[in-house]
Amino acid sequence: MIFCKATKKNARNIHDLLEEYGANSGQRVSPHKSKLYGGSISSTRLTTLSNTLGFSLGSLPFDYLGVPIFKGKPKNIHLQALADRVKSKLASWKGHSLSMMGRVQLVNSVIHGMLTYSFKVYSWPKGLIKQMDRCIRNFIWSGNVDKKKLVTLSWDKVCTPTSAGGLGLRKLKDMKKAGCLKLCWDLTKSDKQWAITLKSRFFRNSSPINHAISSSIWSSFKNVLHLVRDHSIWKIGNGLSTSFWNDNWLGYKLKDLILEPLPNPISHLVNAKVAEVVHNQVWVLPEIFKQQFPIITCDIHALSLPSTPEPDELVWEDSISGELTFKLAYSCDMQPPQCIGWTKFIWKLFIPPSRSLVAWRIMHNVIATDDNLIKRGLTIVSCCSLCGSSYETVTHLFLRCPFIMQYWNWLSSLLGMPLDLSNFDSLLGICNKGWSPQLHDLIIAAIVNILWKVWKCRNNVRFNDIYPYFSRDLIYVKSLIHQAAHYSKGLNISE
Ligand SMILES: [Zn+2]
């Protein structure tokens, strides 16, 4: 892609350059495959330029390397094609044949990748983000982008890290903000030609413009510029790029701390660069400043200057390297996730995620037992499929049912102590009894695998008319625990 000012001379020069390049390299530019796009210029001039170059006229929008190129603020119409591509990708996967955790993995690795690329350029319209979130949410829960599942957890909770009770997914709204922030940061820091050109459009005397412009990038930029300003700090080199008064180079901005006007002899510092108070890489503050602001003077003197002058550098305050990564941008201004105790018991490398997920659904009470279905408006006559003598509730099925009691009794006799079955938290509390690390892992594997197996048995009775046989099933559960022990510490255990 070549950009230039729309003059006949420029068009001729580009034409000659391409001709010369073709003659020397043997790689000729095909006029039939090349197009000319104009900005705000008359159609007569555009036609003249098109004739000079020999390229036909193209019209916006068009796609370039998968990114739609258009003029003005991003609208649904510009990005719908990409949204549809994501939707059809989701629909093409056999969602039903994957476990829910498999679907989470696919969304995290493929779908988020497809969208991040675009989020780093454009600020997507809210409506489109909602539409995409809905498709992803349906796909995760039901395997079908158009089918809503009845018993689900709020999407906000699902989109938190696993340690905070979620599934480690990201909300598109926050990913969009992260993309915009990353672009804003790259633009603010870069001194490459693209950044210089855009900065000349977006800033007047280092302040952002406050009038509307027809730009597809500006909307990404303006909403997060305050975040870049709030979370970055200038590392002083020669002081030439940093504003003494307006920029954060001391951990705060002087304009925020000094509320009265500066006295006359030093009032010019308001418009000065830091270089004004540096001489031969040593701080030289005016006497009147030192007398009036002794604490700030101490802070300034505490900043060491590099022995040889080098350009000032803007660094991201929470970053070790000083650079803003997409991950840091995502968590910027977000409440740190609150860790939930039980999550550390169910998500383990030695337990397949699809089994941990059953425990996760039980802990959140979002498993499709009769009580949860009735709560969400379904009219059914409830009966526990495993004992036939009680209503089916989450508590009954997994803590009280005579069927699961066979498992809990087995585990309890193995450990030589009773299990507290008053609720799920207290059941998992058995893991905290000061066991050796190996035994600790084994108990976790036993509980998670039992919950998973019982849910499977219940579904087999209910939907396939296949009835469980405890002694045979217990052998299977034991083998799963053995497997987990193998992956956990590589131990060979006999029981
Ligand atoms: Zn029962």
UniProtKB/TrEMBL annotation:
Superkingdom of this protein's organism: Eukaryota
This protein's name: Uncharacterized protein
Organism the protein comes from: Trifolium pratense
